[in-house]
Specification:
The protein is mainly beta and about 240 residues long. It contains three helices and ten strands; from the N terminus they run E-H-E-E-E-H-E-H-E-E-E-E-E. The chain has one domain: OB fold (Dihydrolipoamide Acetyltransferase, E2P) (Beta Barrel), CATH 2.40.50.140.
Length: about 240
């Protein structure tokens, strides 16, 4: 005998309190318009999202691990039959990304259905212009942990090992702390140009449009979540609220 435990757990789910992250570098900030779902998951709703890059050498990740563990303890309080493949939202940029800016960083993707408020450094005004909050900007966020459980629980209390269980972080608000180096270039590059001599006009022979390679949807590593040991660093910057 077995039953689908997802609906029951969602009905009893306890909302996790929000917290303020350490400073991070923003990557792929879809915070003004929603990002469409990945082609491999067309059934998903578009959402606002941002990926946060945390320097491994200078960032204390303890607060994230504490909130992840609290969400796990709330969602699966019985440690004797807790799922064995709980996924963590914290990913390793040195292993799980080929992008140069992710090297030496932990990265966490956060999403929300509602457009997030973005405050300036002094918390005196909201940022409404897209060119003021970009990939590479230095920021921090208010987020909260959210457990998910998609799978069956058997009569003996054990969970289906083929289910999908884990913790994610959802975005509440953002605060820009300072300017950063924009990812993907940008800026004024007119110094590269020089005078051009007149030349005969020739027809342009176009090339076929670029077809990006197909990529598989990311599959996080399996295994029980374990928080690594980190050192505590002092609090940075003014309070967001």
């Amino acid at each position: 005998m077995q039953n689908n435990n997802q609906a029951g757990q969602n009905a009893q789910r306890v909302f996790q309190p929000g917290f303020l992250t350490p400073r991070f570098t923003a990557s792929f900030p879809y915070v003004f318009i929603k990002r469409p779902p990945h082609p491999s998951r067309p059934q998903e709703d578009p959402k606002f999202e941002i990926t946060m890059l945390f320097d491994k050498a200078t960032t204390d990740m303890t607060i994230f691990h504490n909130h992840i563990q609290a969400a796990i303890n709330t969602e699966w309080p019985n440690t004797s039959n807790r799922p064995q493949n709980i996924k963590s939202p914290i990913r390793d940029g040195d292993i799980e990304s080929e992008r140069d800016e992710y090297k030496g960083c932990w990265f966490i993707k956060v999403k929300t259905k509602r457009k997030p408020v973005i405050k300036n450094r002094d918390n005196t005004a909201s940022i409404e212009e897209e060119d003021q909050f970009y990939g590479g900007v230095i920021a921090r966020a208010k987020i909260h942990a959210f457990p998910f459980s998609i799978g069956k629980q058997y009569a003996n209390g054990q969970y289906d090992p083929n289910g999908n269980y884990g913790v994610t972080f959802q975005l509440d608000a953002l605060q820009k702390l300072e300017e950063g180096q924009r990812f993907g270039g940008g800026g004024d590059h007119t110094d590269l140009f020089g005078p051009v001599e007149d030349a005969p006009q020739t027809g342009y022979q176009g090339q076929a449009s670029y077809q990006p390679p197909q990529q598989q949807a990311y599959q996080p590593p399996q295994g029980m979540y374990q928080a690594p040991q980190t050192q505590q660093l002092p609090n940075q910057g003014p309070n967001l609220y």
